[in-house]
Design a protein that fits this description.
Layout: H1 2-28, E1 30-34, E2 40-41, H2 65-70, E3 78-83, E4 88-94, H3 106-110, E5 112-117, E6 123-129, E7 136-142, E8 151-156, E9 163-171, E10 176-178, E11 190-194, H4 196-199, H5 210-218, E12 222-226, H6 235-241, E13 248-252, H7 259-276, E14 282-285, H8 297-319, E15 325-328, H9 349-363, H10 375-382
Parallel strand pairs: 11-12, 11-13, 13-14, 14-15
Antiparallel strand pairs: 1-9, 2-3, 3-8, 3-10, 4-7, 4-9, 5-6, 5-8
């Protein structure tokens, strides 16, 4: 029995050493690239405190602590790059030990999400890097891509965690560099300001929040300023948003606001933003309907009250001569079947696809130039 135990221990030791050697061989043959020099998209400001913050450093003294803390999540940040590698690895260091939430998986909260531009020019999902520990994870993104072709990739960052560093690894001898610069008419971002839904709760992976889906469909840069529970149309945020040279502003805060707060905040917010950016379109978005609102009257009343308050504010602003305002009703943001949220409020991937479908025909015409691949065409491709 003792000899058997010794042999088992020796076998485990040999296996462990072999695994470590194999890992070392892989590491030795992989060239790691910090992605920051490639140009990170999704940041509205360059003067950030940490590399992947979503608000400028000065905002720490301007906004509520909750907003500042959430701004350090990397929601909406992404990097485009080109490579001829047939294998891609990722290594990223998180700022929080919380990898997942009770209603949102680790892949969405703390993972990386990889897309590749297909032959048609459209983005296609390729793989997700699954976080298993904090702070640093290393994962194989993809292997087995055909040789001899340079491809453009798009890598999304975590939605509800922050990152200290993100690296992409390619085999020795393979190239990795900047993606082509966007055309001049598509360099100003679509800026979304909103709630936990805007931030990405509860997408299964970072590329499935509606802001990211729209960014791919329209092939346009996006700035995601979703602050979970804290998108409230505050004047400090209006002033900060006005610093971004945006293509369109999308204001989607009603899930965090009562009718009373809409009455007090909406008009001053829009006026401050319009003064800062006189010609940039502003899209005001109603609250989505709770998936179970038809069965729970109180939830339906809350939807109706906040929507009525926003519509009145919109009408008053238009009558006052504020130009470039647009309005998206909330009754079509989710489906009528009640099957597209995790808790009646936060969308699943299906819910986010439906939100993107509702946003696109309203948002696309507001952009400086018509985006490729219209709404109907994209729906056909998914089928």
């Amino acid at each position: 029995m003792l000899r058997g135990w010794v042999r088992a221990c020796v076998a485990l030791l040999v296996a462990g050493l072999a695994g470590a050697m194999a890992k070392a061989d892989v590491e030795k043959e992989t060239v790691w690239h910090d992605v920051r020099p490639l140009g990170v998209e999704g940041q509205g400001w360059k003067d950030v405190t940490a590399a992947y913050d979503r608000l400028p450093g000065k905002a720490e003294k301007l906004v509520r602590p909750a907003v500042w803390g959430l701004s350090r999540h990397s929601a909406g940040l992404c990097v485009r790059f080109v490579s001829d590698a047939t294998t891609l690895d990722a290594r990223w260091t998180l700022t929080s030990e919380r990898l997942a939430m009770p209603h949102m998986p680790a892949t969405g909260v703390s993972g990386l999400d990889l897309y590749v531009r297909g032959p048609s020019g459209r983005w296609r999902w390729l793989s997700v890097a699954k976080p298993t520990k904090a702070p640093t994870n290393t994962a194989r993104l993809v292997t087995g891509l055909p040789e001899g072709k340079k491809r453009e990739f798009l890598l999304y960052y975590p939605l509800y965690n922050g990152v200290k560093s993100v690296e992409v690894g390619v085999p020795k001898g393979k190239a990795l560099g900047k993606a082509p610069e966007r055309p001049v008419e598509r360099r100003k971002p679509i800026v979304f300001y909103g709630t936990s839904i805007t931030q990405g709760g509860c997408a299964s992976r970072p590329g499935m929040v509606h802001t990211a889906i729209l960014g791919r469909r329209l092939d346009w840069p996006v700035v995601n300023l979703g602050f979970s529970g804290n998108g409230r149309m505050e004047l400090e945020l209006a002033r900060l948003l006005g610093e971004i040279d945006a293509a369109v502003y999308v204001i989607d805060c009603l899930p965090n606001m009562s009718a009373k707060s809409v009455e007090s905040n909406a008009e001053p917010f829009v006026k401050v933003l319009r003064k800062a950016r006189p010609r940039v379109p502003i899209l005001l978005v109603e609250d989505r309907s709770y998936a179970n609102a038809s069965l729970l009257p109180d939830r339906g009343k809350r939807n109706a009250a906040s929507r009525a308050a926003l519509k009145k504010a919109y009408d008053r602003l238009v009558r006052a001569g504020v130009e470039g305002l647009h309005y998206l009703p909330g009754d079509k943001l989710l489906g009528a079947d009640g099957e597209d949220t995790v808790d009646g409020s936060h969308p699943t991937d299906l819910g986010f696809l439906r939100q993107a479908d509702a946003f696109q025909p309203v948002l696309a015409p507001l952009l400086p130039k018509a985006a490729p691949g219209g709404h109907r065409e994209m729906r056909k491709e998914r089928r």
